[in-house]
Amino acid sequence: MSNVSIMIAGVGGQGTLLTSRVLGTAAVKAGYDVKVSEVHGMAQRGGSVITYVKIGENVNSPVIEKGEADILLCFEKLEALRWLEYAKKDGAIVVNDQRIDPMPVIIGREKYPDDIISKIKANRSNVFTIDALETAKELGNIRALNIVMVGFLANKTDIRREIWYEAIRETVKAKFLDLNLKAFDEGYKMAESYSN
């Protein structure tokens, strides 16, 4: 694997930080150099949160500049639109098709944009839209949506599935382990059957 830059974007409470730890742990176990940077933003529940994960043979800095992300992993569609310019033109954009109104929308100062997915697809050709929230609901816990997203992404890497399982076992609390392993498998299967 040549150096890969992954930017994870979501809102507080969606598990972006845990996701970066799972990705980083899996990559280290697979023998890669990894740098992770957690940029919390307004990390309280509902605020924008981003993290950077860089994976490769020799990674010097975790920071991802505009136009540098090979993969933009987005847990909410407005966050995908907000951070889109950080993705390379040919980069992969994986979007959880979920709406979470930010505070300016909640208080009526701004309007939530229409047709976000269409706007993203108008700018990028490599867009994957999935309903990770619905899958997590079916598994019994909406907080597993981040690991559904990890499973989807994992399917597109050369890191063996067993290594991802090990990474999840090391980073997820024991009481949520079974749920998260199932969430990972559902995301992985979703990627196998995905069509744009």
Give the total of domains.
1
> Largest sheet, if any?
6 strands, mixed
Compute the separation of the termini in Å. 25 Å
Total helix count? Answer: 8
Short description:
The protein has 196 residues and is α/β, with parallel strands linked by helices. Helices cover 40% and strands 22% of the residues.
Helix-strand layout with pairing:
Blueprint: E1 4-11, H1 16-29, E2 33-39, E3 48-56, E4 69-74, H2 77-83, E5 87-96, H3 103-106, H4 116-123, E6 127-130, H5 132-139, H6 145-154, H7 161-171, H8 177-192
Parallel strand pairs: 1-4, 4-5, 5-6
Antiparallel strand pairs: 1-3, 2-3
How would you characterize the overall build of this protein?
- The chain is α/β, with parallel strands linked by helices and 196 residues long.
- It has one domain: Pyruvate-ferredoxin oxidoreductase, PFOR, domain III (Pyruvate-ferredoxin Oxidoreductase, domain 3, 3-Layer(aba) Sandwich).
- 40% of the residues lie in helices and 22% in strands.
- The chain contains eight helices and six strands, in the order E-H-E-E-E-H-E-H-H-E-H-H-H-H.
- It has a six-stranded mixed sheet with strand order 2-3-1-4-5-6, with helices on both faces.
- Helix 2 runs parallel beside helix 4, helix 5 packs across helix 6 and helix 5 crosses helix 8.
- The mean pLDDT is 92.
For this entry, give a set of tags.
Pyruvate-ferredoxin Oxidoreductase, domain 3
